[in-house]
């Protein structure tokens, strides 16, 4: 009889834990790990995330050039929609952010690094590092 009660308690605890884990899924940034950049500092080049009537948002300018070791700073200007700055190769990820946020990435390897906003498919840009 006691063992049966213990089993019920254990099952109840498992249900509570499951419900608790699931509730974190309501956050818009659930499962997103900000990586590859800093929220402080100043970039060699600055890209603004501006509102755009046709594409919701745009990277302005959409293409910038830096030397190896230099930085790019993204400034969230659009108060109408949240955006992300996400490298296609996964090397940096800002997660979803709103106006006033900034993200600074240092580029240590030459290449044409393409990035996008995960929310708006039309929002794409690249950083040419050379
Ligand atoms: Cu966007």
Characteristic terms for this protein:
binds copper (II) ion, 8 strands, single chain, 4-stranded mixed sheet, alpha/beta, Immunoglobulin-like, 130 residues
Question: Any idea what the shape is?
Answer: globular
Q: What top-tier CATH class of the domain at 45-129 fits best?
A: Mainly Beta
Largest sheet: 4 strands, mixed
Residue share in β-strands: 25-35%
CATH architecture of the domain at 45-129: Sandwich
- Nearest-angstrom radius of gyration? 21 Å
Q: Helicity range of the residues?
A: 10-25%
- Weakly predicted, low-confidence segments: 10-27
Report the strand count.
8
| Distance linking N and C termini | 73 Å
Question: How is the CATH topology of the domain at 45-129 named?
Answer: Immunoglobulin-like
Report a brief summary of the structure.
The protein is an alpha/beta fold and 130 residues long. The chain has one helix spanning 2-23, and strands at 45-52, 56-60, 63-66, 71-76, 86-87, 102-106, 111-116, 124-129. Strand 7 (111-116) and strand 8 form a beta hairpin.
